[in-house]
Design goal:
Distance between the termini: 26 Å
Bound molecules: S-adenosylmethionine, iron/sulfur cluster
Radius of gyration: 19 Å
Structural class: alpha/beta
Oligomer: single chain
Helix content: 25-40%
Strand content: 15-25%
Strand order of the largest sheet: 7-8-9-6-5-4-3-2-1-10-11-12
Largest sheet: 12 strands, mixed
Order of helices and strands: EHEHEHEHHEHEHEEEEEEHHHHH
Number of strands: 12
Shape: globular
């Protein structure tokens, strides 16, 4: 069954957040000292998660990315991976992680059937890592990347959020690190999503600035073809090394956005910028039939008109998207709850 939203977009990809907890405090995602967490009893069991995932599969989803918070903090994650991996409708099952706990998990994740891993890493300098994430954990992340390779994960990706004055001098070092571990690096523009309470326009290091910087370091950069619905535009250096740029802030790609997001407590969000979601946990736990839930999902997706990043781009005097006092009242507005 294929269902289109009001802009003619199908739902193909599901970002499944398995926890809102995290063991890092990245400055663009979790800059505050204190957070309000989702109540533990609201967090879906793996069986509930898989039940909801099947409904998305019926609507046309064939790719799932496990995310968080930090997904590897969720106990027994490989058991969810194993349950999802056997779904016949699923063609891609991937994980986005900060890598801190990956060294101990990689082999089990591979055995459970996980297809690919993306590690978020913004710097290869230990002191800078500590100041950007408030945790001294770079060695663990590097060990995690190494373990993932040894476990047999290929097509590793490294996602790096680049913020002006923090790590824009590391584009070349990050690319070279990616080359050394056989991972494709994707540079991500700083977004003013909920949670990014320190966002300001002049902290954004744009795609244009990235390309200019890299051309200065390496020489002419060539574009590479990429699928229309892929968020990253791909490029190659003169020596053939490929990399991506996700320009969500300066060149949003909402028109082709086929992603739905499910929080760990079962709230469906239609956009990273959505201020409200649809609670699927309550009807699920109240015993709603599969058909009722499917009709609900279908109706919600059909009504979708979201294009948050495009709308934000047209805001004049753009500052913090969601004020801190509002964020503090609803964990669902946070980036670490909706999963990126
Ligand atoms: N904790 C895991 C991780 O960091 O990979 C998964 C969840 S994290 C929310 C997913 C992605 O969102 C990460 O790659 C992170 O860099 C990105 N992200 C978080 N806040 C962001 C922001 N303000 N702008 C751009 N990307 C952001
Ligand atoms: Fe950083 Fe990911 Fe944790 Fe956010 S959820 S603080 S991006 S590691
Ligand atoms: Fe999709 Fe919303 Fe991101 Fe646009 S801002 S690409 S609609 S999630």
């Amino acid at each position: 069954m294929s269902v289109l939203d009001t802009l003619g977009r199908p739902v193909r990809s599901l970002r499944l957040s398995v926890t809102d907890r995290c063991n890092l405090r990245c400055h663009y995602c979790m800059p505050e000292d204190e957070y309000v967490w989702l109540p533990r009893e609201d967090v879906l069991s793996f069986e509930e998660t898989a039940q909801l995932a099947d409904l998305f599969g019926q609507l046309g989803v064939d790719r799932i990315r496990l995310t968080g918070g930090e997904p590897l903090l969720r106990r027994n994650l490989p058991s969810l991976v194993a349950q999802l991996a056997e779904r016949p409708w699923l063609s891609e099952l991937t994980l986005t992680t900060n890598g801190v706990l990956l060294a101990d998990a990689a082999t089990e994740l591979k055995a459970a059937g996980l297809h690919r891993i993306t590690v978020s890493l913004d710097t290869v300098q230990p002191d800078r890592f500590t100041s950007l994430t408030r945790r001294d954990a770079l060695p663990k992340v590097l060990a995690g990347i190494d373990a993932a390779r040894r476990a047999g994960f290929v097509d590793l990706k490294i996602d790096s959020v680049i913020t002006k004055g923090d790590n824009d001098d590391e584009l070349g070092d990050l690319l070279e690190f990616g080359r050394s571990v056989g991972a494709e690096v994707r540079f991500i523009e700083y977004m003013d999503v909920g949670g990014a309470t320190h966002w300001r326009p002049d902290a954004v290091f744009s795609r244009a600035a990235m390309l200019e910087r890299l051309a200065g370091l390496y020489g002419p950069i060539e574009p590479l073809p990429s699928p229309a619905s892929a968020p990253a535009d791909r490029f190659q250096l003169p020596d053939g090394l490929a990399f991506g740029i996700i320009a969500s802030t300066t060149q949003p790609f909402c028109r082709t956005c086929d992603r739905a997001r499910l929080t760990a407590d079962g709230v469906l969000l239609l956009c990273l910028y959505a201020q409200h979601g649809t609670d699927l946990r309550r009807p699920l736990r109240a015993g709603a039939s599969r058909e009722t839930l499917l009709n609900l999902l279908q109706a919600v997706w059909k009504g979708r008109a979201d294009r948050g990043a495009e709308e934000r781009r047209s805001v004049r005097d753009r500052g913090t998207y969601i004020p801190l006092r509002v964020l503090k009242k609803d964990a669902h507005l946070e980036m670490h709850t909706r999963g990126g």
